[in-house]
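This section describes the prediction task in plain terms. A model, or a person checking by hand, is given the sequence of a single protein chain and must write out its three-dimensional structure as a string of C-alpha cells. No templates, partner chains or ligands are provided. The sample shown here is typical of the held-out split.
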Amino acid sequence: MTNETDVIIAGSGVAGLYAALNFAPDVRVLVLSKREATLCNSYLAQGGVAAVVDKENDDYRLHIADTLIAGGYKNDLRSLEILVNEGPEDVLRLYKELGVDFDRDEDRQISMTLEGGHSRRRILHHKDSTGREITEKLLAAVRQRSNITLLENTRLVSLTPEEGGYWAGLLAPEGYRALTCSYVILCTGGIGRVYPYTTNSAIATGDGITLAHELGARIRNLRLVQFHPTAFAAAEGRERFLISEAVRGEGALLLNSEGERFMERYDERGELAPRDVVSRSIMQEARRTGREDFYLDIRFRGPAFIQDRFPMIYSRCLEEGVDITRELIPVFPCQHYLMGGIDVSVYGDTTVGRLYAAGECSHTGVHGLNRLASNSLLEALVFARRTTYDISRRMRHEASGVTAPPPPPPAGGRALNAGHRTAIRGIMQKAWFVIPDYDAVQEGLCRAEEILCDLRGGGYALTPDYVEAKSLATICCLILREVTERRKRQPAE
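The expected answer:
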C-alpha cells in the first residue's frame, strides 16, 4: 500500500518551492498554493537576501554578531550558525544554477547593499524586487520537474494522522477532497492579516500555524511580531507596500512632521538602527509631537539613481501620487513579519510525527526578539532544504502507506457571520502594536475567545472565508494568551 503522494508542501513561497526542488526526482511532491502561486510574502520581498559571499570584506562572525544584536541576544545560536554558514551556498546556487539575476557592479561582480543593523554590505538584490525575481525562477524550475505537481487555488484545510502518513483534506473551487500522503511540510507564511494594516499579501492568515496547533504541535514565541517602520502611509487599503530597508541603506533620511531628523534622539545608529528600534522611535516621536506624519527623503540621490535602484518603489509611489525623486515619501509602521511560529528542530521537524515546517510560519529561533533585515529569505532557503534531508533519510527506512479509511467529508453548514475578521484586527491593533497596551490585552483576549468559540461550534460551512476567519481568531488568541501568561510570570517585563 502506497500513499497517493510522498510529500505535501502547503505554500508556494520561497520555502515551499525550494523544498520541492531539493527532493530527488523519484519523490512525488505535491505543492499547494491557496491562491495563485505568486501571491505570497516571498514575492513581495524587496530588499534582498543577506549572505556572506564576499569573504574578503565580510565574515560569518560579523553576520552572526549583527543578527544577535538585532535579536536582543535571544537567538538560538545553533540555528543561527547553521543559517549564516550554510546560507551563502544556497544563495549562490540560486545565482549559478537557477539563473536568479542578482544586480552586478561595473566589474560584473555581484553588487551588495547595506541595510539597517548590518555592519557590512552583504545584501544581494535584484533592484527592489528580489523576492519576485527569486520566486519566479523557482516557479519556473518547479514547473519543469515531472515529480512535482503544483495545484493553485487549493488549500490544505485538515490533516488526520494515521499509521503510515496522513489523510489530507484539500479545498479547491470545485469542492473538497481527501488524499493520502506520507509527510507534510507547512510553508504557509505569516499572520499579517490579523492586523488592519500589513505589508503581507492576502494569503497571510496563519492557516499553517492554526493547523499545526490543532494537531498538538508546539507553538513558540507567537507574540514576537515585527513591525516595519517604513510602510507607505496610504490613505486607504489594508495592504501597505513596503519602502524597503535598502532605501535607508542608500542614505534616505527619516523625518518627522516638521521635516526634521529625529532618530539620533532615540538611538545613535540613526536611520540604520534595527527595525524594532526605528518603529518604537517613530511611535515615541509621535507621542512627543502629537503628530503621526513621518517621511523618508531620498531626493538627494537624484532621479537617475532612484529610478534605476528602486524602480518598483518609484512606480508604486507614483501610483499613489508621490514622485519620490521630487517629494517626500509618507511612511508609518505596520505589521511586517512573525519571528515565532511552529517550533521546529534544525531539520524542520515539529513535535508531531511526519509534520515539518519552514519559512515564516516556523520558529527556528534564528531571529531572536527581532529579525535582522534580509535574513528571512535566507532562513527560508536554508531550513527548507534541511527539511528535505530529514524526510529523505526517513523515507529510506520508514514504512509509509495509510490503510485507514478517509475521515467523513465536512457537512454543509450556514453562511459565516460578517464582522469576525474586522473585530479580530481591531483587537490586535489596539492591544499588540509597536508599543503594547497591556490593559487592552486581557479585554481583547476575552472577546477573541468568544469569536473563536463561535467559529468552532457555530455550524458554519467549510469555505475559504471560514477557514481564514478561524485561523485569524486562533492566532489572535494564541498571541494574547502567550502575552498574558508571560505577564503573570514576569510582571515587571
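For orientation: The longest helix spans residues 464-489.
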